[in-house]
Amino acid sequence: TETPPDLADIAARVAAVPVLAERLGGDPARWEVREIGDGNVNSVFSLHGPDGAVCVKQAPPFVRVAGPSWPLTPHRAHYEHRALQEHRRHAPDHVPEPLHHDPGSHLQAIEYLDGHVVLRQALIAGPPPDRLGHQLGDYLARTLFHTSDLALPAHRKRALVAEFEGNTEMCAIMEQMVFTEIYHPFHRNRWTSPHLDADVRRLRADTAVLIAVARLKDRYLTSRQALLHGDLHTGSIMVSDHATHVIDQEFACFGPMGFDIGNLLAHLLINYFAATPPARGDETAAQTRLLETVGTVWTVFATRFTDLWRTTPTGDSYPAALFPAGTDTLHAERLRYLDEVFRDTTGFCAAEIVRRVIGFARPADFTTIEDAARRATCERGALRLARTLLLDDHHDIHDVIEAARRSRHH
Ligand code: SR1
Ligand code: MG
């Protein structure tokens, strides 16, 4: 009963914006318009003309996959556009160019990423691209450092925080979906039943788990550490042979850096568990590469972030008047800061894994496994990892990688 998208209307709206019409060239009646989105929330189109292409996103006043029965603010398009602008400024190699935003129709146009595919699909089909871990570690370091109090003067930071506080409806989705509704009976939950029924019951009855997750929710609600992407899963990342671009910033808000990093690691690890063979077996080459990528994301993030802090400490929290750039006075303090980000990262990684097994938005890595018993085996391994990440200390990223291996073999 879904209404087919009005492709002619999309073309007409684009034709009315000179900068877009020029980019495409030729007669708008002859542009090739296709719906290309497969995300949960928005409709996405590509438009090709003789001179070029653009990507167009339209935010209907509801959740795309659910339809009008699940209303959702279309103003999410505004926050996505603003986050694209802010993040693009700091990581131009990894964020597509925002070209246009029409607040009236909640329509945005973004650079068309030629030759790219969605990372989740690439990982379901094969190993991670070689440079993925470096590129995403670099993206995270740049976007998170430059939107934090380490880089921004306080007045600018407060203004940005105030601006993104308006994205409340989108944050509320995360607050509910990630930290709350999966831990009690809720009509949108949909785990692999009956295979995982006992696992879900056990998790919900575990007070230590519930407290650990509530602590993370409190952190998501109260921290304004940096401007987050807010939904950094592998469906929000496009890759080509050489490049990696991050899209879909509609959940952008200020929050703890570990929320973005943990989300990304969760989805790399979900793919690792989804490839679990039915019987106990060695890791495949693709799985080994995934774990290496997990390690690289964190180490590149931590190294670049430290370099940025050392060389461009332009923010107000550790004033340059007291801690001049290029000195080593803050060496131990930087390690402590990153330790805290790492603790957040492992926690949010765990929370994201759990919600993707039990909740509404289950990832294709798992759902494309047709055999329910086999799917449950993969998902159970992921839940095992999440539980240990929530409850036990993990000193560094190698501990996390070893915990993933143990959880798969259990
Ligand atoms: C209603 S939105 C469902 C999920 O899809 C998005 O990608 C977010 O992760 C959200 O939780
Ligand atoms: Mg999305």
Account of the 3D structure:
The chain is an alpha+beta fold and 410 residues long. It has two domains: 16-111, Phosphorylase Kinase, domain 1 (2-Layer Sandwich), CATH 3.30.200; 117-409, Aminoglycoside 3'-phosphotransferase, Chain: A, domain 2, CATH 3.90.1200. Helices cover 51% and strands 11% of the residues. The protein is built from 15 helices and twelve strands. The protein has a five-stranded antiparallel sheet, with helices on both faces. A three-stranded antiparallel sheet has the order 8-10-11. A two-stranded antiparallel ribbon has the order 4-5. The model has no long low-confidence stretch (mean pLDDT 95). The protein binds 5-S-methyl-5-thio-alpha-D-ribofuranose (SR1) and magnesium ion. Residues 39, 41, 231, 236, 248 line the site of magnesium ion.
Q: What labels describe this entry?
A:
410 residues, alpha+beta, Phosphorylase Kinase, domain 1, Aminoglycoside 3'-phosphotransferase, Chain: A, domain 2, 2 domains, five-stranded antiparallel β-sheet, three-stranded antiparallel β-sheet, 12 strands, 51% helix, globular, binds 5-S-methyl-5-thio-alpha-D-ribofuranose, binds magnesium ion
